[in-house]
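hey all, quick one before standup. I had two proteins in the batch that finished overnight and I want to keep them in one place so we stop losing track of which output belongs to which input. First protein below, input sequence then C-alpha cells straight from the run.
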Amino acid sequence: MNYTIIMEKLGTNYGGWYVPLNMDLNENSIIYSGGVGEDMSFDLLIQQKYKSTIYLIDPTKKAIKHFEEVKKFYTNNEKFTGGIQRDYYSCIQTLKPDLDKFQYINIGLWNCKDTLKFYKQENPEYVSQSLIQNMFSNEFDEIEADSIKNIMEKYNHTTIDLLKLDIEGAEIKTLNQMLDDKIYPKYILVEFDLYLKNKDTNKETKQLINRLILKSSYKILKNDNYNMTFVRY
C-alpha cells in the first residue's frame, strides 16, 4: 500500500535535515550524529522532539568548542563564537533540550580503528576538516578514527535508530563498512560530500546509493542536492 510521507526540515537553512514529520523514535532511541561543526540545530531539535539519546561524533577542535558553548548557552545564556549561521539563534533559543542525553565522542568516523591525517581547509575560519586527501588543503592534524561497529561495541549498542553523517567525504568508507558489518539504522541522513566537491572520480557515491537501495532495503525519502534521507522498513 502506497502512502505519502509528510516531511519536515529540522534545523537551520544550512545545518537542517529533511525527516518524516512523525519518526519512529522515542526516549529509548539511539542516534549517532557524525559531523557536528558549529551547527547543532538538528541535533537539538530532534532531541527535544523525541527525547532520544544522541552521540555526537566529531574530532574537529572547533566542533568540540561549539558543543561546550551550546551547554553554556542553555545554562548561562552565553553567546556563541565562531561561524554561526544567521538563523541559528532563532532556531534554537526557545528549546529546552535534555543536555544529559548528549554524549560527545572525540574521534573521526572511518572503516577501521586507525590514526589518520585530518586535513584542514585553506581558510582557517571554516570549521570542516576531512580525512580524505585533496579534499581541502595539505595542512592537517592527526586524529583517532574508528568504525561504527567498534563504537557500538564500546557503548554496548546493538542497534542505531538514526545515523546522520556530514563527514566531508569519509561517508563512503564509513557506510560501506557499516553495511559490511550488517548494521542497518532505521534512518540514515547523509551528505555525499565526495560527490558534491567533485572528488568522486570512481563514482563511489552512486555505487553506495545503489547498494543502500538495491541490496540493503533502504528507500530514499528526500534528495536535497545529495543531502539524502533514507529509511529502512
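OK second protein, same deal, sequence then C-alpha cells:
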Amino acid sequence: MKRFGVRFEFGLAVLLALAPLCVRAQSQDGLSSAEVDKLRDAQDPSERIKVYLSFQQERLGRMEVVGESNGDDRDNMDNLLNQFISIDNELKDWIQYQFDHDGDMRKGLRALLDEGPRQLEILRHIQKSPPPGSNDFSMSLRDAIADMNDTLDGATQALAQQQKKFPQMAQGAKDDTRALKKERKEQKKLNQKERKVRNRDRKSDNPDDSGGK
C-alpha cells in the first residue's frame, strides 16, 4: 500500500490536498477525540511526527495483547492493523507536506528512524508467531509491514536532504543578517554626513546665528 509511487517521491507533484493547519485525521476511523485534539495542538513539524508515532505505538501495544489472547479477538486485531496503516499514511502525508514547504522535521524524522524499526520488529514478531486464526488478518499485517518499511525509507531520504538543506538556509540567513547590518551601518554614516552638511549650510545662511540671543 505505497501511497507514493516511488518511496515518497519528494519534490514531485504527488502531495494530496492538505492545508498546513488542517487535521485530516479528524475524519480518520479509529482516532479518539483526545487524539484528534493532540494532532490539532501539534503544529510543529517534528512534534506532529512524534504524536503519530505515539498513536502507532499505542495500537501495537493493543495488538500484542490481542496476540496473546489465543485468537479470541481476531476482528479487533484486523481493526487495529487497519488503524495502524491509516495513521502511518497520515504520517507520510504530513512528512510530504512539510518537505514540500521546507518545514524543519529533522528532530521528528530522527525520532521516527529511532522508533520505527522497533515498531516494525513488533509487527514482524506477530507475523512470525501468529495467534490462531491469523489468516483472517494476514493481509492487513503484510500491508502494515510494507507501509512501515516505505515510511522508514522515505524518512531516511527526507532527513538526508534536510540535513543538507537547512545548514544552507541557516547560512543564507546569516548572510542576510550581515548584509542588513552593513546596510544599516552605511545608512547611519550617510545620515551623519547629511546632518553635518545641513548644519554647515544653516550656519552659512545665518553667519550671526550663534545659537542664542
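Flagging for whoever picks this up: The helical segments are 33-41, 45-67, 74-100, 106-128, 138-205. The chain is about 70% helix and 0% strand.
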